[in-house]
Amino acid sequence: MPIRPYRRRRSVLYVPALNHKALAKLPALACDCVVIDLEDSIAPSRKAEARDAVKHFFETRVADGKEMVIRINALSSEWGADDLAMARQCRPDAILLPKVETARDVLDANDMLDELDARASLWLWAMVETPRAMLNLGAIAALGRDRSARLACLVAGTNDLVKDTGILATPDRRYLVPWLMQMVLAARAGDLDILDGVSNDFRDLDALGHECVEGRNMGFDGKTLIHPAQIDLANNAFSPAPAEVEDALAIRAAFALPDNADKGVISLGGKMVERLHLDQAERLLIKAGL
Ligand SMILES: CC(C)(COP(=O)(O)OP(=O)(O)OC[C@H]1O[C@@H](n2cnc3c(N)ncnc32)[C@H](O)[C@@H]1OP(=O)(O)O)[C@@H](O)C(=O)NCCC(=O)NCCSC(=O)C[C@H](O)C(=O)O
Ligand SMILES: [Mg+2]
Fold first, then answer.
1. Helix, strand or coil for residue 259?
2. What is the ipTM of this complex?
3. CB–CB of 208/13 below 8 Å?
4. Which residue's alpha carbon is nearest to atom 27 within ligand 1?
5. Which of 90, 143, 219, 244 could lock onto 151 through a cystine, CB 3.0 to 4.6 A?
6. What is the location of CATH 3.20.20.60 in the chain?
7. Rounded distance, CA 86 to CA 44, Å?
8. Domain spanning 11-237: which superfamily?
9. Is 146 annotated as a binding residue?
10. What is the pLDDT confidence band of residue 246, given thresholds at 50, 70 and 90?
11. Ligand 1 neighbours by CB, cut-off 6 Å
12. pLDDT band for position 3 (50/70/90)?
């Protein structure tokens, strides 16, 4: 597999594959990434129709720089294999696997893509949304370090987690937070990106604002969204603040000085700065689009 390029994924918008009006709106939206959904937003009786709609969408769309992802149905379902075969033909950036429960689920999708001779830069993303996925999180995320497994990103599926565990969904997400933090930790251990779950009440932008800030502070790379009105808040919350960008640029400039070329640690503005801070600064500057 090629080296995984770092992408900004502050705002990741789900769009049901059969919502033609919403699909037509996408070029005008400022989200970083779009997930066209074949799974839970499509009724069982319309899965084949939705697959055709996705195919048509990719055949006719004009690329606009957004990262494009297709969420297929679970490979264990009657639709999964056909979805995967169709999705690979569309040449999206990634295919999102729902209801992943074990590392084997990801490897099975990867094997099927290899058999279909999918291109090397087609990545897999995995939803973490079942109790079994939570228990197998370490093994799933570890696939991120095996480039041949294609895994690039984990996505929290908070609706399914609430449903399958029976926890109470509270506005402050207090019963979800421990699992969300585990997801962030596992993703980092596997060198993967990680996206926070959706906020269902798309009219309550105050609640969304809090969730975005909380998600950023917990270490998520971005938030999954369901409505265009949610995009700006996510973009703002997951963009580095001007002061952070300034600090990162100062660290980059300091280590670029010839005097510091062979130093592991330097003093900058009265603070100790090590090369690990340079790595952190470089990642932040990519997030800032610099
Ligand atoms: C939630 C919605 C059904 C609401 O739709 P609607 O009532 O049409 O909203 P509005 O009238 O406010 O829409 C205003 C305009 O915006 C367009 N629109 C709406 N949603 C989207 C969208 N997602 N992407 C692009 N454009 C969108 C409307 O077409 C209107 O356009 P116009 O009339 O021209 O002004 C709807 O928002 C929706 O379906 N959202 C996505 C739902 C979805 O994909 N669900 C599945 C993924 S979430 C999930 O499964 C999480 C996870 O698995 C878990 O377990 O947690
Ligand atoms: Mg789900």
1. helix
2. 0.98
3. no
4. 22
5. 143
6. 11-237
7. 17
8. Phosphoenolpyruvate-binding domains (3.20.20.60)
9. no
10. very high
11. 13-16, 19, 21-22, 25, 37, 40-41, 127, 129, 157-160, 197-198, 202, 226-228
12. low
Q: What is the pLDDT of residue 1?
A: 63
Annotated binding residue 244 = no
Residue 94: which residues within 8 A CB-CB, separation 6 or more?
67, 69, 70, 122, 123, 124, 125, 152, 153
With tokens 């269902």, the residue in question is 200
Distance 137 CA to ligand 2 centre (A): 16
Residue owning tokens 């580095």: 240
The residues facing 16 across adjacent strands are 37
User: pLDDT tens digits, residue range 146-202?
Assistant: 988 999 999 999 999 999 999 999 999 999 999 999 999 999 999 999 999 999 999
Q: Global pTM?
A: 0.94
Take residue 241 and report the two structure tokens written for it: 């603040």
Could you say which ligand is closest to the alpha carbon of residue 41?
A: 1
In the reported structure, the alpha carbon of residue 59 is separated from the centroid of ligand 2 by a whole-number distance in angstroms of 27
